[in-house]
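Teaching soon. Got one?

===
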Amino acid sequence: MKFALTTALTLVAFAAAPAFAQENGFYGTFGYGNYSADDADLGAIQLRGGYNFTEFLGAEIEGAIGVADESATIAGVDVNVELENSYGAYAVGRIPFSEKADVFGRIGYVSTEIKASAGGFSASADDDAAALGVGGNYYFAPNQGVRLGYTHMDYDDSIDVIDVAYVLKF
């Protein structure tokens, strides 16, 4: 009887292990972010890779390439502003509400390059800053979902990013 009970408990533990493992492990995202700085709204394709060390703690890196520029007239001169790229690394804290939804907060460090051009001349600037963000994930399948996030990048002229992305857990 003791052997049968031990065997049954062991089989249940091994069967349940994949459910626990889904909370930990690698994930990736592919999405679009709107980078709002002063009067310019710039769009970018974002890629993210992350790892959940536990159900509550993880880390992620992200990269973005600009795809939507902004044109403005400054002192009678047409100026085109574009996001060249942005890269960052974050520590992530997560609170799961169910198997299908969680919210997260993240803190990290980013580097962003922006280019402006007017009248045949161009200049680019890159800078590093601290970043702080919040958001949530909703999983419509065990390893697939959508992510909505907000990140504040603390530059001299701060940049606020709102993004939406497809999430894939590995």
User: Anything to note?
Assistant: The beta strands are 25-37, 40-52, 57-68, 70-74, 77-96, 101-118, 121-141, 144-153, 159-169. Residues 25-169 form a domain with the Porin fold (CATH 2.40.160.20).
